[in-house]
Amino acid sequence: MKAMLLTKFGGPEVLQPGELPEPVPGEHDLLVEVHACSINPVDFKMRRGAFGKGRTLPYALGFDVSGVVRAVGVSVKAFKVGDEVYASPTFTRHGANAELVCVDARTAALKPANLDYVQAAALPLVTLSAWESLYDRGRIEAGQTVLIHAGGGGVGHIAIQLARLRGCRVLTTAGRPESIGLCRSLGADVVINYHEEDFAQRVMRETSGRGCDAILDCVGFETLDKSLPCVAPNGQVMTVVGGAAGALRELFVRNATLHCVFMAAPTLYGINPERQGRTLAAAARLVESGKLRVHVGRVLGLAELPEAHRLIESGHTTGKIVLRVK
Amino acid sequence: MKAMLLTKFGGPEVLQPGELPEPVPGEHDLLVEVHACSINPVDFKMRRGAFGKGRTLPYALGFDVSGVVRAVGVSVKAFKVGDEVYASPTFTRHGANAELVCVDARTAALKPANLDYVQAAALPLVTLSAWESLYDRGRIEAGQTVLIHAGGGGVGHIAIQLARLRGCRVLTTAGRPESIGLCRSLGADVVINYHEEDFAQRVMRETSGRGCDAILDCVGFETLDKSLPCVAPNGQVMTVVGGAAGALRELFVRNATLHCVFMAAPTLYGINPERQGRTLAAAARLVESGKLRVHVGRVLGLAELPEAHRLIESGHTTGKIVLRVK
User: Hey, which of A287, B24, B307, B317 has its CA 20 to 30 A from B80?
Assistant: First the structure.
């Protein structure tokens, strides 16, 4: 079959027309005749060498597809030959920059009936990214304020709509007039032109200094760093960009979450202090039933507080140091 | 009343005995006669100047208390004078290094009936930290593998037990013989002596290369960085240490969560690929009902793939670029 192939890692010129053997569907696969595919930032990252370890070139990229099912694997029940489907093919085998592609049937769905193939091919990867970010991981709720970076981009323009559908107030950033117009037309409440003003200052002003309950970062790097002070207490950040930092990349490739747990937040910010009372009451029940025990490594008098500080700063204590006051 | 006071920021010697006016309980407060208090790393951090902005010295630290209720605020219904309680006083007023302390009644509970005041004072802050990390934020589940750093420490020794109670397999790190012994006695499945071996290598070996579903970091800095590659796909990290990095500190003081969303994870790791199919099916319903629309900024032929790469790399595209294949 015909394909556009990644012949070696490099610039756009390394993508060249060529031939690949027709793919053979595995047990859970659909063999899809590609009517349209779309492009995402991961395509140029992979073209430059990302996720390249152990990969044999030449290679077809393309991680969005719409088309018609031509064959199904032996375990596939949900689809039949002739179905019009859309999906995001996995990164680990040939993608949809070709006449045929295999996709795992479990990751596919019938394409929206009212869309043509071109429109349908635009949806899968960005919809999966925005949906997982806002609904599955972030669990955004009605009434929350959500900041979406690059609202005119692939993920961003879907995310604006998903956040609005959930009843959230949507702030978004965009730079070019077309992007700003698109964000407005999709229902963003506030569109911040990051060429004209500091987005962080504007976000804090728009939220009366509180920040946003959720921030979806589709840009990474400095945009992500600058966004962190714009998070409200108990808020969350979703990033779909691995970023430059080594630590963040480790979390990203694992699809992982980092919870920064600051136990003073309920009283400092006055948000649900009752949670702490409930927790201590529940812990008391566990202690009374012998299921939870506390280890006191050292007991001192209150006047020995400086010594208690020295001990805990040394890091050489086991369990807790307690001061008897009365 | 008598108190041990932070007279200026500095070493343990700045903590000196002194007098404070008796605190007056506010609307939601309990006035607690302090029988015991305990010490946590936040005490020495605040002694050195952390959270010091806008604070008037001298100051009583101490963010764990057990004692007897001597007065209640006008809105307090859940406690009465004479109740034996335990709580973690807020960071924003005088703490429990004193004869009396005010605590928000909503954050307090009756102390476990089977503990004396010394034991009860050891519990609040570390229990709240471990509980929020593992149960409220991390939502650990039976059968998961959890790594707890510094299992012999305050938060760690409670966390080991909470993770075991939830039915998790617990790996923990410790260095001194007493700490190792404590971790073993609390039911940790694997106790790693970080003086004797590389904890990350051991964790990967113990999990057959998969990593841990959840990691609770009570150490921060390099320990946190080194832990990230030990997270299993779709896993999570909870840190109770603000850490050195500016970005992480911004998240920490906000009690915030960072989700790193890598949409390829389900197919790369073979974990629940059905979620993507369900998401695309749900998105198709939204599109068909006119609630979600896609913006195609440009349509090219497959042979124009290099140009599509140039366009998306430029960052100057709106919505999606689609390639028509058939």
Answer: A287
CB pairs under 8 A between A and B: 504
**CB atoms A324 and B109 under 8 Å:** no
Give all domains of chain B, ordered by start, each with its CATH number: 2-122 (3.90.180.10), 127-260 (3.40.50.720), 274-324 (no CATH)
B167 burial level (CB within 10 Å; 0-12, 13-18, 19+):
exposed
Residue in chain A closest to B260 (alpha carbons) equals A252
**Chain B environment of A265 (Cβ under 8 Å):** 254-255
DSSP state string for B267-315: HHHTS-THHHHHHHHHHHHHHHTTS----EEEEEEGGGHHHHHHHHHHT
**B306-325 pLDDT, tens per residue?**
999 999 999 888 999 999 99
Give A197 to chain B, closest Cα distance, Å. 19
CB contact under 8 A, B260 and A274: no
Q: How far apart are CA B61 and CA B27, in angstroms?
A: 22
Under-50 pLDDT residues of chain A: none
For residue A237, give the nearest of B256, B295, B325 by CB distance.
B256
The residues that bridge with A171 in the sheet, in sequence order, are A147, A190
Q: For A34-50, write each residue's pLDDT tens digit.
A: 999 999 999 999 999 98
Find, among A175, A205, A181, the residue nearest to A193 by Cα: A175
CB contact under 8 A, B234 and A256: yes
Q: Test A273 with B107 for CB contact under 8 angstroms.
A: yes
Residue the block writes with tokens 């990203």: A252
SS3 at position A289: coil
Under an 8 A CB cutoff, do A228 and B234 touch?
no
Chain B positions in Cβ-Cβ contact with residue A224 (cut-off 8 Å):
247
Q: Which residues contact B299 (CB under 8 A, 6 or more apart)?
A: A118, B321, B322, B323, B324
Query: Region B97-112: what's the mean pLDDT?
Result: 96
Nearest to A97 by CA among A43, A28, A29, A57: A43
Q: Is cis: bond before B58, omega within 30 of 0?
A: yes
Determine whether the interchain pair B255/A234 forms a contact, defined as Cβ–Cβ distance below 8 Å. yes
Contact between chains at B38 and A234 (C-beta distance less than 8 A): no
What is the widest separation between alpha-carbon atoms in chain B? 84
The shortest C-alpha distance from B174 to chain A (Å) reads 10
Closest CA in chain A for residue B239: A260
Could you read off the pLDDT of B163-216 as tens digits, one per residue?
Answer: 999 999 999 999 999 999 999 999 999 999 999 999 999 999 999 999 999 999
Q: A214 Cβ partners below 8 Å, 6+ apart?
A: A134, A138, A140, A144, A145, A146, A147, A168, A235, A236, A237, A238
CA quadruple B207, B232, B167, A282: dihedral sign: positive
**Residue B325 three-state SS:** coil
Q: Tell me the whole-structure pTM to 2 decimals.
A: 0.92
Query: pLDDT-derived band of residue B253, with 50, 70 and 90 as boundaries?
Result: confident
Q: List % helix, strand, coil for chain B (3-state, nearest 5).
A: 35, 25, 40
